[in-house]
Design brief:
heterodimer; A: about 250 residues; mainly alpha; B: mainly alpha
């Protein structure tokens, strides 16, 4: 995959027009995403009847399940941009992958904490070694390793290339972890099947899934803009140190 | 054929590493002593109850191999890094996959020899009863070692060239090793338990699949790691 890498000059430095302009539509999108989230949450909480077994505890469905879906989607984004970086060697793809990894870590952590808050009154325990719980935790740890790798490497080319590889392998590993843990569990005890959702909850769930999706896109965009500015500052510092204007 | 030339390069690198190790033995002795220390500490943690210790033995032995292996993996690039020789190694003609294959081979021999000592110590310390199917057990240890060494050698190529490598390698490696370790531990446990024969076979097949997947993935990705 690397033999077809185009120029030997390395990734072109990002120049000029990267400071998030005030005329950008992204802040508007951000406001839209937050307002949509609030509206979706209110709608879902108002229209959904209390669950027969869980009562009002089911309301956590509208944050936990969308967060869990984003936990699956965001690492996929890391995978796609990592592959694209190795293919095209554009620094922007690396920064997008890094932004997606940060957001993925946040959503994975959110999913785990919300799941525990739900599990304690429902199952009576904070944690159980279920395949989905365990693989989400392992995913969180893989992402933590990815972010640590980025933090501990100073050379931008090396950081980009290595984190692309680590991101790709990590994403490949997640389904493998899920399968192996599920098998590990089912050998010892029957796993409880995920309950299907009653139609009364579907609208709220669907609305909030989109709200979380918009939010995730906005978060990735914001972190990407911040990363672009950091890189621009690094380039500027290096240029200044070398005594040139660009 | 170029494949044969690559194989010769890989063998040369492995031979160089193993010869250096054989002449000093410092690394092997230190790492193996550490592994046995870990076994003893696990013995304390799990209590003096013979049955509890015996049941936990397969997991403990694999974890001791893992913790000690991490040190071996980071060490394996150290000689090149100290001498600034890694750049030259990369500049040599031929596929860079040969470098990975050579390091993999050397680490495999290192960890396999270490495992022999750990397993003998574990059998004695934890009073493990050797099952009649010990050849299958050897096969599982072989495939588990391949999985461990594959990912360890691969991630060490990055971590050993970064800051804080002592932290970075376990942080990258341990979550990635979950499937391999789980399969190796369960297969070993099933064989030592004696009565769960079918499970051991299933876990062993799974372990082989993991080995193949990770070997293929790391061989494809190694060039991207070593060229920068």
């Amino acid at each position: 995959m690397t033999t077809s890498a185009p120029p030997a000059a390395g990734p072109a430095p990002i120049t000029g027009t990267i400071v998030a302009p005030r005329t950008s539509r992204w802040p508007i999108f951000g406001w839209f995403a937050f307002l949509f989230l609030i509206a979706s949450q209110v709608t879902a909480i108002v229209i959904s009847p209390p669950d027969r077994d869980m009562g009002h505890l089911e309301k956590i469905l509208y944050v936990h399940v969308p967060a869990a879906w984003m936990t699956m989607l965001a690492p996929l984004t890391v995978l796609v941009f990592g592959l694209r970086y190795l293919w095209k060697r554009r620094e922007q793809d690396d920064l997008l992958a890094a932004a997606a990894a940060e957001v993925a870590t946040t959503f994975a952590g959110l999913t785990l904490v919300l799941g525990m808050i739900w599990a304690r009154p429902t199952w009576g325990v904070w944690w159980t070694w279920d395949a989905r719980l365990t693989s989400t935790l392992v995913l969180f740890l893989i992402l933590a390793g990815y972010l640590a790798l980025r933090a501990l490497i100073d050379d931008p080319d090396r950081r980009a290339q290595w984190s692309a590889v680590v991101g790709i392998l990590g994403a490949i590993n997640v389904p493998i972890v899920y399968m192996s843990v599920r098998w590990w569990r089912t050998i010892h005890q029957i796993q409880s099947s995920p309950s299907t959702v009653d139609p009364a909850y579907v609208i709220g769930l669907r609305l909030n899934a989109f709200a979380f999706l918009f939010l995730m896109i906005y978060f990735i965009r914001r972190r990407y803009e911040a990363a672009l500015m950091e890189r621009a500052a690094e380039h500027a510092a290096r240029a200044a140190a070398l005594g040139s204007r660009q | 054929m170029s494949l044969r030339r690559d194989w010769r390069r890989a063998r040369a690198i492995a031979w160089k590493d193993l010869t250096a190790e054989r002449r000093s033995k410092a690394g092997f002795n230190a790492v193996t002593s550490l592994a046995i220390t870990i076994l003893v500490l696990f013995g304390f943690a799990l209590g003096p109850d013979t049955r509890a210790v015996r049941d936990a033995a397969p997991g403990v032995i694999w974890l001791a191999a893992l913790f000690a292996g991490v040190l071996a993996f980071n060490r394996s690039y150290q000689s090149e890094l100290d001498g600034g020789a890694l750049e030259q190694l990369v500049l040599y003609p031929g596929s860079r996959k040969a470098i990975y294959a050579g390091k993999l081979l050397a680490n495999f021999v290192f960890v396999a020899l270490m495992l022999v000592v750990i397993i003998v110590a574990g059998i004695i310390l934890f009073q493990v009863v050797i099952p009649s199917e010990w050849p299958s057990l050897l096969a599982i240890i072989l495939f588990g070692t391949i999985g461990l060494v594959t990912l360890g050698t691969f991630y060490a190529a990055m971590s050993s060239r970064s800051r804080a490598r002592e932290v970075l390698l376990p942080l990258l490696l341990f979550p990635m090793l979950v499937p391999v370790l789980l399969a190796a531990m369960e297969a070993t446990k099933a064989l030592l338990g004696g009565n769960l024969m079918s499970d051991a076979g299933a876990w062993a097949r799974l372990l082989i699949v993991f080995d193949v997947v990770f070997l293929a993935a790391t061989f494809l990705a190694f060039e991207a790691v070593i060229e920068v």
